[in-house]
Amino acid sequence: MAPQSVPKAVLFDIGGVCVASPFQAIIDYEQKNNIPPDWVNFAISRSNPDGAWQRLERGEIKMDVSFFESFNADLSNESLWQEFHSTAKQGQGKLKDAAMKNPSMLGDHVSLKAETEESEPTDQDRGAKSEEGAHMKPEQHEKEASRPQGKSKLKDAAMKNPSLLGDPVSMKAEGADSQPTDRDRGAQSPSSSGSDHRGDEVPPEAPAPTMTSLSSSKQDATNQKSTNISLPAPPKIDGKALFWSMMDAARSPDPYVFPALLRLRSLPSDKRPIIGALSNTVIFPPGHPYNSIASVPASSQSTPSAPSTSPSSQSSVSADSDPRSQFDVYIASAEVGSRKPDRKIYDLTLAKLDDYSKQNGGNGIQAEDVVFLDDIGENLKTAKGLGMRTIKVQLGKTWRAVKELEKTIGVDLMDDKTRRSKL
Questions:
Q1: Distance separating alpha carbons of residues 256 and 260, to the nearest angstrom
Q2: Around 102, how many Cα atoms within 13 Å sit in the side-chain half-sphere?
Q3: Model confidence at 198: pLDDT above 90
Q4: 109 pLDDT tier (thresholds 50, 70, 90)
Q5: Who has greater pLDDT, 128 or 20?
């Protein structure tokens, strides 16, 4: 297999990559307010495509009172809460399995725990095993697999509780594996239709059950049991406070990726790849203090709260660290009316990168010429499907993405001190 060529363009996400991830703000909010883990992410993602958060990131609505009202409604949606509660109870991997039915437009619907930990997926993440099966020993699985099906199940049911069957199926017939007689079936033969020997007949009100009827009865009992369990009300969430806490988090440059971006930018233009950004963003209201660096958006998986006004917060990102100024091509979802992982915004980004290359003496850009860094699996999936190379940026371990990028483009992007600390 021939080695891949050096990419002609490096494409960065902003939130969770170049600047701190608002995912941590979600985790902190849930822990502080005793909200079930993953509920916020689940509620936002399952509100796609017409949820308040998705419409804000597409620039379809303004960040005003109406937005926060709609956002609060999404976070307290009772039907979604029931779905979330049911999914968690059934052990189907919480966000991941729900996202398989309707991929999250907030990002990859693996649980926040899975996003923040570098661990192998558990059976719960895979959503593949029932609670009973997960604790079975290998020999138990083999025994279960070899267990005769069909009639033996009916036989077992009868042995445990003969009254279930009315006139029991003949155990002799079952043991001999012979065809059931009319009596075995619990039916009257023509010769006995007028007989008073009721003991040989199944009373009309108690017909012999089939395997289907037994299964249905069991399912009805399970459903009744589930219905009897009272579901707690959706948690109380201050959507506005949550929103701005995430916006605050997304204002701090990442300690590894952002310096690497600056170092890459400092190289002569003919010695470095084209630098692009593709980010799901929001537009702040006119006069908002964050408009001074409006190019620092919420992450593609954020949900915000009330802006901090402390000097330390306001100075966390200086004018020199404004991400927009560091890119040759910058695509913001709220400005173009489309958001990741929709293919439309990727096609637009590739077209802009291609134009930039040709306008600056290059031969143009194709998808395979691009390496894309993002912290959300669904966003990377679309990019990979188009032919881009991808690098997953993991929350709390962003330096690893920098090391992978160095290998991909053949450029040192860490200072010696950082490199020594991360060897």
A1: 6
A2: 12
A3: no
A4: very low
A5: 20
How does residue 2 score in pLDDT terms, banded at 50, 70 and 90? low
- Mean pLDDT taken over the chain: 74
pLDDT at 345 over 90: yes
**325: Cα separation from own chain's centroid:** 32
Q: In the 3-class helix/strand/coil scheme, how is the chain assigned residue by residue?
A: CCCCCCCCEEEECCECCCECCCHHHHHHHHHHCCCCCCHHHHHHHHCCCCCHHHHHHCCCCCCCHHHHHHHHHHHCCHHHHHHHHHHHHCCCCCHHHHHHHCCCCCCCCCCHHHHHCCCCCCHHHHCCCCHHHHCCCHHHHHHHHHCCCCHHHHHHHHHHCHHHHCCCCCHHHHHHCCCCCHHHHCCCCHHHCCCCCHHHCCCCCCCCCCHHHHHHHHHHHHHHHHHHCCCCCCCCCCHHHHHHHHHHHCCCECCCHHHHHHHHHCCCHHHCCEEEEEECCCCCCCCCHHHHHCCCCCCCCCCCCCCCCCHHHHCCCCHHHCHHHHCCEEEEHHHHCCCCCCHHHHHHHHHHHHHHHHHCCCCCCCHHHEEEEECCHHHHHHHHHHCCEEEECCCCCHHHHHHHHHHHHCCCCCCHHHHHHCC
CA dist list (Å): 181 to 188, 201, 213, 303, 351: 11, 13, 20, 67, 75
More confident residue, 386 or 133: 386
**Location of structure tokens 């007989």:** 195
Residue 88: pLDDT band (50, 70, 90) is confident
CB burial readout 134-165, b (16+ within 10 A) else e: eeeeeeeeeeeeeeeeeeeebbebbeeeeeeb
How far apart, in whole angstroms, are the C-alpha atoms of residue 208 and residue 205? 10
Of 186-195, 252-261, 396-405, where does mean pLDDT reach its minimum? 186-195
